Amino acid sequence: MDTDDIIGEILDKIRPTEEERAFVESLMMELKAIAEETIESLGLDVKPHFVGSLAKDTYLAGDHDVDLFLTFPLDTPLEKLREKGLELGKAIAERLDLYEIAYAEHPYVRARYRGVKVDLVPCYDVKSWRDVRTAVDRSILHNRWVLENLGGRNDEVRLLKRFLKGIRAYGSEIYIRGFSGYFAEILVIKYGSFLEVLKNADFMLRQKIIDPGNWLKREYELAMKTVRREAEADKPLIVIDPVDPRRNVAANLGWEKYGRFYFKAYQFLESPGEEFFFPKGQEVEDYLAELRKKGTHLVTLAFDAPNLVEDVLLPQLERSARGFEKALSREGFNVLGWNVGRSSGKAFIMLEVDRRERERVKIKPGPEFFTERGWDFYRKNERVWIRGKRLFAEKRVKENVIDVITELIEKNQVGLGKGIREAIKGADVLLNYVPKELEDEAYLFLSREKWNLKG
Q1: pTM for this one?
Q2: In the CATH scheme, what is the code of domain 150-276?
Q3: What is the pLDDT of residue 191?
Q4: Residue 106 pLDDT > 90, yes or no?
Q5: Which residues form the Polymerase nucleotidyl transferase domain (predicted)?
Q6: Any binding-site annotation on 57?
Q7: 119 is in an annotated binding site
């Protein structure tokens, strides 16, 4: 099957059907009407705006999350926007199915309506980047720019998004560090099509800077400040936001996720297949057999996950894993790799180490040499010497990695994430054993299949 046939089959699966489009349109009309009625009833000067993939028609079939932004006039004080924005969001959500308060730069409301997730986000009604006061304000500008520049290439964006999801490189959250939907839209607008984006994977990495808004000519000083800052931070790409010269759209993109895209783009162009978009589940084997084969050991710390959102919890787990890696290397254990996550209410840190025990030499002080106890000490120990009138001996002891880790935690000698430090102190520390729900995770980690570029 050639590339065009594969792309055609993928599009049939990811392009919304006419029935789906009708559902989405009626959903948005209902939400807009509810928002406008609520705004009027509260006497507020606020306009509702849809942003995100639904508003830009770049959403994938079955993916209907709604982003409804509630725009306040620019002269609204920030505290008032936060207070009234939350009040308005809750009032709208009261008319939907259910809701909860979530927190980002300021509180917003997460609701559900007709089975679809709806985010109700207060922001400023910005007209340009100079008006931007909070991180979410740019979304209005992003929406406008994509609609003005996409030029009917909506399906090309869908292909790129599904490809990035399939290779596990989609999402700009700090615990994913991949490509955002807006980033995917920019790449399609810049290079023209899904296939052209893949063909330019190497070129864009060497070029480093992508400037679709032409800011390096229009606002050179500001744009160069962004370039210098991001280059210093060693980011894979610097994509100057076409609506704001101060921002790198690829700021959260990590080298690992760009590397996955780099190799998978090449592999797809060489040998296209549906599995790039819809990968089969990874085959999982026995993690204990993997340990025996490698001759290494697995230490797992499992503890009750604190009530933190993923993009706060995961970086703290990663920081703690690096802390254990550093502390154990000081203690003579080589950490070959680490893995973190949350499963069934438990957070975990997995460490693959080269040995389960270390030999340590201890100096053992004994009694005075001319006593009966001195003779006893002399007979029992292999290396014995006198310092002054007392006997001393050298003793070799074996220390288990679990005991070493326990002592490191007790003595606060590990750099741990601030929000999970106390939880880790109460962790179960397991050697070469994991609870049943973590067995697959342990195998994927130990075999490196979790990250294998050839898989």
Answers
A1: 0.87
A2: 1.10.1410.30
A3: 97
A4: no
A5: 37-142
A6: no
A7: yes
